[in-house]
Amino acid sequence: MFPEEKIMVTRLDYVILHRGDGEKHDYSGQLAACELIYKLSGITRVHFAGETFIEQTGDIRFLPRTEKREEYYVEPLEKGDSLYFRFDYDGQMPRGALMFRPRAFDPYRVLFEKLYSVWIMKERGYYQRALSLVYAIIALIQQEQSESYLSSGQRMILSRSMDYMRAHAFEPGFDYEALAAAGGASYSYYKRLFGRYYGLPPSKYLANLRLRRACEILESGRMSVEETARSVGYDDAAYFCRVFKREMGEPPAAWSRRRRA
Question: Distance (Å, rounded) from C-alpha 106 to C-alpha 116?
Answer without folding.
Answer: 15
